[in-house]
Design brief:
heterodimer; A: alpha/beta; Rossmann fold; globular; B: 277 residues; mainly alpha; MetI-like fold; 11 helices; flat
Chain lengths: 237, 277
């Protein structure tokens, strides 16, 4: 009886050791991913109803903030949807992983029947006690407990941005995030979109606020010219 | 005609200049509030007026068109009281209608949640909802006899399948913004039954629910026509065999009133429930 028990114990110890090794490996892998910020797209092709929107498209930036500019209908939103996996590309050579990416559309996506707090809690699965201490919470605290249908467009947008920032995705794609926000409000959000709050996040946003340099600090800016198919973008920085 | 057109055109052209001065004089302040109600009131009395006029001026025989007085008299004479018959019909209808909505919505959510279940049940569901509810009355009479359970279940079956299909469709046709949201935050809509699924169904289902109410009326009357001791359908059935046209008229009018009232109540509460729209 004693003789058979001994080898079993040995096997158990070995298995524990193996598990620890695997954890260590996972941590190392995560570390590597965090280091690789920026955006690299290679050979992206996409057609929509016969229109070749992107053809062997190339874009490379090692900045943590990438701004896409251009007139309406030039493909900015399409690119964000492709990057976030909400549209399927026809073909590509290299694209950022869609896993862990978060896209906030221009259109308000808060559920109007829930309060701001409920919209954050049910979607991010983060309890209010955890996010009420967030420094950006002060910007929304005065209206976040109202039903979304009772908020203004600007207030809803602030809640949506807060929710996305709180979620800390690996890639955050924002489609015209400053729509419905006045200049002062937009500026108050910028520090939370960049810097320490989003250390591990690459931010890609479309923006038509050409004239506000404070919204673009440390960002690489790419211009769409409205010509199809798009093969590359003119980088202005 | 030309004259009228010219006048209208002229009025339109000069209206901005003189309107603020003449409108208060032409239309008293209370008019905008009273006028819509007045139109509704006229609408309510329009049909009885046509009825009386037809009877009075065209001299239609009582056999085809009973006089309003005889219908009112029937209202008093029927034993047991006509109100009791109406109550029976209303209770059967309301219970069946509510249970039918609950069953249909639950079935719709389940089908939407489990693809396998959807594949399994969809053909049967499509077949069932195309069978007119009245056609399944004989089954229910054989299974449940003349019991109230059978009649209520008949209403449930009559509306639940259509509501299930409408529910499933409402859930499967998710707006792009919601699809993107669920994908972005890595959550499934199925994990938000009370916070997403139910409100989403509520905001799209009202037309189907109103249509189902009308269907439920048809089914409950058919079940009463075929086997019952109380209810407006029963009243119609007995009146038909005694050629009591005034009773048939009375039952029809009460049915119409009941439908109008219930439809108003459903629409009122449903619109209140989806206050965000």
């Amino acid at each position: 009886m004693t003789a058979t028990a001994a080898p079993t114990t040995e096997v158990t110890i070995d298995a524990t050791a193996l598990t620890i090794d695997a954890t260590a490996l996972t941590i190392a892998a995560t570390g590597l991913t965090i280091a690789a910020t920026g955006l690299t797209i290679e050979g992206l092709s996409y057609s929509y109803k016969g229109l070749h929107v992107f053809a062997q498209f190339i874009l490379a930036s090692d900045h943590k903030t990438v701004v896409l500019r251009g007139p309406s209908g030039c493909g900015k939103t399409t690119l964000l949807k492709l990057l976030s996996g909400n549209l399927e590309p026809t073909s590509f050579v290299s694209m950022p992983s869609t896993a862990g990416s978060c896209l906030v559309l221009q259109e308000d996506s808060l559920f109007p029947w829930l309060t701001g707090t409920e919209n954050i809690r049910h979607v991010t699965k983060i309890a209010p006690s955890e996010f009420e201490n967030h420094p950006m919470y002060g910007l929304i605290s005065s209206f976040v407990n109202r039903k979304a249908c009772q908020m203004s467009y600007g207030q809803r947008r602030m809640v949506e941005l807060f929710r996305a920032i709180l979620f800390k995705p690996k890639y955050l794609y924002l489609d015209e995030p400053f729509n419905f926000l006045d200049g002062a409000k937009a500026k108050s959000v910028v520090p939370f979109l960049q810097g320490e709050f989003m250390e591990d996040t690459t931010l890609v946003m479309s923006n038509h606020h050409h004239d506000d340099p404070s919204l673009l600090s440390g960002a690489s800016v790419f211009e769409f010219d409205g010509e199809f198919p798009i093969t590359s973008l003119r980088g202005t920085k | 005609m030309t004259q009228t057109l010219e006048t209208t055109h002229e009025t339109t052209r000069i209206a901005p200049r003189i309107a603020p001065r003449i409108v208060p004089r032409l239309a008293p302040r209370f008019a905008p509030r009273i006028a819509p109600h007045l139109v509704t009131l006229i609408g309510i009395f329009l049909l009885p007026a046509i009825w009386i006029a037809t009877k009075e001026f065209l001299h239609v025989s009582d056999r085809y068109l009973p006089s309003p007085i005889s219908v009112l008299r029937a209202c008093m004479e029927i034993e047991p009281n006509v109100a009791l018959h109406t109550l029976y019909t209303a209770v059967r209808l309301i219970l069946g209608f509510l249970a039918g909505i609950a069953a249909g919505v639950t079935l719709g959510i389940c089908i939407n949640k489990w693809t396998l279940l959807s594949k399994l049940l969809r053909p049967a569901l499509d077949a069932m909802r195309s069978v007119p509810a009245i056609a399944i009355v004989p089954f229910f009479l054989l299974w449940f006899g003349f019991s109230e359970t059978g009649r209520i279940l008949l209403v449930v079956c009559g509306i639940a399948f259509n509501i299930a299909v409408a529910t499933q469709q409402a859930l499967s046709e998710m707006p792009e913004k919601h699809r993107v949201l669920f994908r972005s935050f890595g959550i499934s809509p199925a994990s938000m039954t009370w916070t997403y699924t139910i409100p989403r169904i509520m905001e799209t289902l009202l037309p189907t629910v109103r249509f189902s109410l009308a269907t439920a009326f048809g089914v409950v009357i058919a079940s009463e026509l075929l086997g019952s001791q109380m209810g407006l359908g029963y009243l119609m059935q007995t009146a038909r065999s005694t050629f009591a046209m005034q009773v048939i008229f009375l039952a029809t009018i009460l049915l119409g009133l009941l439908n109008a009232i219930l439809d108003k109540i459903v629409t009122h509460f449903w619109t209140r429930a989806v206050y965000w729209r």
